User: Fold these one by one.
Assistant:
Number 1:
Amino acid sequence: MIQICAIASGSNGNCYYIGNNSDAVLVDAGISRRQIIKRMKLMKLDIRKVKAAFITHEHADHMRGVRVLSDQHSIPIYFTKPTFKRARPADRPKNVEFFSPGDSVQIGEFTIHSFSKIHDAIDPVSFRVTINGKNIGILTDIGKPCNNVNEHLAGCDVAFLETNYDENLLWNGPYPYHLKTRVASDVGHLSNRQAAELVANIDSSKLKHIFLSHISADNNRIDFAMEAFNGLKKEINIIPTSRYEASVVLEI
Ligand SMILES: [Zn+2]
Ligand SMILES: [Zn+2]
């Protein structure tokens, strides 16, 4: 059995869990170690199973808990070299492994495929994790879809997919103008509409579950994100995530 959970998801902190009976990997650790452990315990997920964590890019909402988590639980952290160099020195763990975008890394029965994506970071990547013939994509912080994102998402059974903002809420919301344009730009984030279009534009016949991920507190509402996927809902199980607590643990 594979267990899949968003320990935290939102524009202020991201941490995603994929595990089987003996091992697990995390993608990003953008909330404190204490919060990660607390939330995992509540969901009956064991930190001792976590054999590695993979980092998508250097933004704080993906990095905040990395060093302490790694130091206290002896977890190796996988970075691209530019991302490691760009991370704040205080966030850099000692136990580091490097990969290049396009590499695949084997951790127990898990194969973690990395690929470049478009986002305003030094070397942004996303991941597709293969285990027991199933594929789980972690696709957040995407300015606009590219071939890599399209191809990897089409291979997924389960995806954490960014639905960062509702376009009306963003443009009529509290952000200063330069931030609004950054979020909506080609190197910012995917809106609800863009995410739903992305799924509609690929062969999604394998895709059974989507976690609506990296939702903005100021510029989105979970019901708006759900609504954007209405047309697809019959075939695909749409699962909400939260910045405040772990999502349900999906078992496949
Ligand atoms: Zn982010
Ligand atoms: Zn980011």
Number 2:
Amino acid sequence: MKACKNCRYIIEQGNVCPACQSTDFSDKFNSQIIIFDAEKSEIARKLGAKIAGKYAVRIK
Ligand SMILES: [Zn+2]
């Protein structure tokens, strides 16, 4: 698994972030958070998450 350095979205395969189309990833991240409903979630708003999925809380 790796996390997008731009928006912190976590992907398990592929090379393009489905959330922001970035191709800049890091496999070094701490905890992860699952967003089920990006539009209604308070956490999603704080993270800047736009789509549902897993996000890294902190990228090293
Ligand atoms: Zn991204």
